[in-house]
Amino acid sequence: MTPLDSHPSLARRRAGVLLHPSSLPGPHGIGDLGRPARHFLDWLEASGWDLWQMLPVGPVGRGNSPYSSGSSFAIEPLLVSLEGLVEDGLLPRGALRAPAELRTRTSTDYAGSRRFKRPRWKAAFEAFTRLRRHRGSRYRRFLDQSASWLEPWCTWASEHRGGPPEQHAFEQYVMDLQWKRLRALAGRRRIGLLGDLPIFVPMESADVASSPKLFRLKPDGSPELVSGTPPDCFARNGQLWGHPQYRWNEHRKTGYRWWIDRISRQFELFDVVRIDHFVGLTHAWMIPGGARTARRGAWRKVPGREMLEAFHRERGQVPLIAEDLGTVTPAVLKLRDDFALPGMVLLQESFDRDDSPTVPHALPERSVVYTGTHDNDTTVGWWRKAGKATRERVRAYGGDPGDRPHELLGRLAMTSGSNLAIIPMQDILGLGGKSRMNIPGKPSGNWRWRLEKGMLDIRVARWMNRLAAVTGRLRT
Question: Pick from 198, 191, 159, 184: which is nearest to 68 by CA?
Fold first, then answer.
């Protein structure tokens, strides 16, 4: 195919913050799409930066991981603003009062938030049922427009999470309304939302339950081949992720309908979308189902080009980002470049050797530079563990950071040649390793970091504004 041009929204200098909604402060054990999100947008507007990047927002799965979602289409109900339900007349104001231990929690409390929000969802659904004659047309329109994914999700959620399917439909209706309000507010502030699409889905999902033919399953329903990565210097047995691999010939028969709908759904929620593990669209490490480690896997080709071509024929050029970290081959680079997708660079990995091709001045415009991501240590934590040679390269390139390495790497990201610069909130605030979001391979205790009261300091926003102005990234 003829290589495409970059999408206009990715072809100018921009800056953004990586912060998942669950990490927002709030009184109910987890951030939500109401007042906490609006307050963050106010702060981000003052910074002059114009992108808010999130992790996947689907219903969290095992270990509360947003990358192991029960649906590729639904939104996590824990992110609901209960205050919004009060404003809509579906809950009394007294329902907002949470136990002291939940109100004062400084890390995300998934279990506590579920215990608190679940009965309030039920009460709101009952109130909605009584009042639905006044709201029926909009609700029915949502049910009709979302039927292809909503019905499978409601059936699966009812079976695995309890409650009637109708309540799960109501929850998604509310989440859709609250999301639209948030996105409209972001749009008025000229701030774009950047989402994240996991390439795989877990066995325990509505996607697999409703469309088993699209996955490599045995006749008994167990996975024939699963996902992971091969052994390397970081993991001698490789990484066994366990997602079922796709039965690509079945996707081809449908014209890649599930993929087109899945990506299109993300653009109903976000302005820009990152495809996680983009290398998996050219080749995937496929491991026999039931294997105890990833050692027995093998690389197999994947028709990701066909899928992207099918999507492009239907939707045209859209602002996609390729998370092209990992085993990057010439085929991966060609696929990325043919579709004019920016790739990713992590500055924490840019000073590992003298001839690194990813030092800031060498980065191409069509790229997204990060200090680190949700899978990395914070920059302060990384610097404390960095080897002598890495520290010397950083000092030779950017000067001695002293006790503020996050400011140095942030400044290098902002002055780099990359059109997009994204910095995790922890690095903007200069937080240590205890504030990292995820430790890959650790099955529990992740995804819990939250902003504390007072961290959204206007003085920090003003510093960000000045930095964006002098590096040509101020919101336009």
Answer: 198
Query: Would residue 153 count as lying in a domain?
Result: no
Domain count, the chain: 1
Contact by Cβ (8 Å): 319, 272: yes
Provide the pLDDT confidence category of residue 134 given band limits of 50, 70 and 90.
low
What CATH number does residue 440 fall under?
A: 3.20.20.80
Q: Do the Cβ atoms of 192 and 52 come closer than 8 Å?
A: yes
Indicate the range of 132-136, 274-278, 352-356 predicted with least confidence: 132-136
Confidence of residue 135 (pLDDT cuts 50, 70, 90): low
- Element holding 120 (H helix, E strand): helix 110-131
| The predicted structure's pLDDT at residue 440 | 87
Residue 46 structural domain: 8-76+180-470
150 is a domain residue: no
- How far apart, in whole angstroms, are the C-alpha atoms of residue 471 and residue 17? 16
Of these residues, 109, 276, 324, 427, which one is catalytic?
Answer: 276
Out of 50, 323, 324, 427, pick the active-site residue. Answer: 323
Task: Tell me whether residue 115 is in a domain.
Answer: no
DSSP one-letter code for 246:
B
Out of 42, 338, 375, 407, which one is annotated catalytic? 375
The answer to whether position 297 is within a domain reads yes
Q: What count of other Cβ atoms lies within 10 Å of the Cβ of residue 350?
A: 25
Residue 276 among the catalytic residues: yes
Cβ neighbour number for residue 123 with a 10 Å cutoff = 15
CA dihedral 296, 299, 302, 305 (to 10 degrees): 150
